Amino acid sequence: MAQLREIKNEFEHIPELQSFEETHQIDKIVKTTSLYTIKLISRKDTSDFCREVLLLEHAPAKEMQAYLWVHKVNANDTQIEVMRKINKALERRFDNKGRKHL
What we know:
By secondary structure, this protein is an alpha+beta fold. It has one domain (11-100). The protein is 28% helix and 31% strand. The chain is built from 2 helices and 5 strands, in the order E-H-E-E-E-E-H. Strands 1-5-4-3-2 form a 5-stranded antiparallel β-sheet.
């Protein structure tokens, strides 16, 4: 399994979610918590299925924010492998956000 290179910000903010949803489709919701939802998505104009990851942060008393994971999902990975990679990226993201508030 190829290792993902670690970068400072693995999630790109999507400022206009409605416009983004016009070009992408939700293939599968893989995780929902009280703070965020993870969806596997793909572009509507391609035959690739579940190639990208959408993070929707919906923290209490805040407006929902959407982010696209900068890594593509490897079609050969199992859902468990994909979730491990995403969870590690989320841990880094929330850890970095927590440090900013210290």
